[in-house]
Design brief:
This protein is 19% helix and 25% strand. It contains 3 helices and 11 strands, in the order αβββββββββββαα. The relative contact order is 0.14.
């Protein structure tokens, strides 16, 4: 018995986007291991909602037949069943997703079976994709040239070493890391 493209597509996991006008759009999650959601046209699922970030969230397929929702540092947050997502969150069939004002419903399709999802080969999905929001500080010591002329080398070295140590301590206190000075 052969399986047609239509029945194979309905076996794949999917999300239903509920439009403000009451209509619905179905997005089948196949052919990739990750799908971005956001306002930008280059997203796999484009949400034309001004409260949604350009790159708002990510749906990530893992080799254990599961899909996670990952917020990508969006301004208004991502929610699963009215709970804010701050870490990758495993989706269950029927989960309600909220991104900005957009409402989606997740359906696992064939993920419940023991067969690998048509979304991807398991060997392609061993690592959960993550993105990090980082800040980079570039600091210039004002008047450093004059300071080098006014202080002896040993004292200048002490002052600068103390400044870097204290700055590094403050950065680490707030969970940051210093890459280089």
């Amino acid at each position: 018995m052969s399986v047609t493209g239509e029945s194979a597509a309905t076996a794949a996991p999917y999300v239903i986007l509920k439009e403000p006008d009451g209509s619905q759009r179905k997005h089948i999650l196949s052919g990739a291991t990750a799908w971005t959601l956001g306002r930008d046209e280059d997203n796999a699922i484009v949400l034309s909602d001004p409260s949604v970030s350009r790159q708002h969230a990510l749906l990530q397929y893992l080799d254990n037949n599961s899909i996670y929702l990952i917020d990508l540092g969006s301004r208004n947050g991502s929610f699963v069943n009215n709970r804010r997502v701050s870490i990758p969150t495993l989706l269950q069939d029927g989960d309600h997703l909220t991104l900005g004002q957009s409402q989606l419903e997740f359906h696992s399709g064939s993920l419940a079976s023991s067969e690998p999802s048509p979304a991807a080969k398991p060997s392609d999905t061993l690592v959960l994709q993550t993105r990090w929001l980082i800040s980079v500080a570039v600091v210039d010591v004002r008047g450093y040239g004059q300071l080098t002329q006014q202080l002896d080398e040993r004292l200048l070295s002490q002052v600068m070493g103390d400044w870097f140590r204290r700055g590094g301590d403050i950065i680490q206190q707030y969970g940051g890391t210093v890459d280089k000075y």
